[in-house]
Amino acid sequence: MPRVVDVDGHVFEPDVLWEEHLDPKFMDRRPRIDRDDRGTTRYNFDGNLIPPGTGRGAWVPEGIVEASLKREGGVDPKARLVDMDEEGIDVAILYATAALGCYAIADVELSIACCRAFNDWLAAYCAVDPERLKGTPVLPMRSIPDACDEARRAVTDLGFVSITVPCAVFDKNPDDPVNDPLYALAEELDVPVGFHAGGPRFCYDKFVDSYATLHALEFAFDVMFAASTVVCGGVLDRFPKLRALFLEAGAAWGPYLFERLDEHWEKRPQEMPLIGKAPSAYLDDGRVVISCEGEKHLPHALAGLGVHSIAYASDYPHWDAEFPDTVRHIADRDDIDDDQKAAVLGGNAERLYGWA
Which of 11, 37, 109, 176 is deepest in the core (most CB within 10 A)? Predict the structure, then answer.
């Protein structure tokens, strides 16, 4: 069996990150955790609250931030390596948690400074064992030229292994040509683009009455929206070497979405003029990979998407991660075969990242 590769692990950003790495002139506007008089905790990014502070569902229950900190490996890379050994993870590809909120910062200079600060901190975290800990950057998406500059620095100078793009890019869809320089850079640097749920939000917080409902709806919609726009908006046609991951909503949505997209392409092809084949056909060459977390419907997802289109993710150390059993939830199940397990647990990631 190939190495076990976690395509969507996370870190937790300590306060010292901003104190040690953020440009001092922005220190009074640094990201912080705020708590209101009800005990509600939110991340504050220059006045942008994550989750938002208005709307029926825009709240975080008291203790949710603290409850996520049960594993020290989110902050301490040495502790993480111990937990990776316990899980059976050989390589972890690491994304931000709170710092995904950097995408919501409107001020370009502040956004650049916060992204650089996080990326520098994450690089130091990964440097403890660069063969096993692989970073991905947050980028100042308000300015695509600056996002390209930071992405290049992250990959070439910091050793990061992909470019990260939020599923909602302010008032632009992921397929908007304004983002094309970033995709061209990913091709040039020969790294995948990870479309990660979270960060800038859609409107669910206005309509649901609990964070649990908000999270369940939003993350699934985020990745479905990103996959739909990237595929049907012609991004993979414009950039024939681009590889894309869609992260943190499981994989069971994939067959449903691509079946619907195929139907609409067949019946309304004039409204998808930028693609020359059915949306599901873009799964055939292995350039599109969706993360999974050992969900019950994994066999259905494999049958509908193809064995080359799904890769294991732990989501460690988030509140909904199932440490220390995430690898076992795939390796020990009897409803998929050994070849499928090998592909999901590491083979697909090795191929996508060019390590195979």
Answer: 11
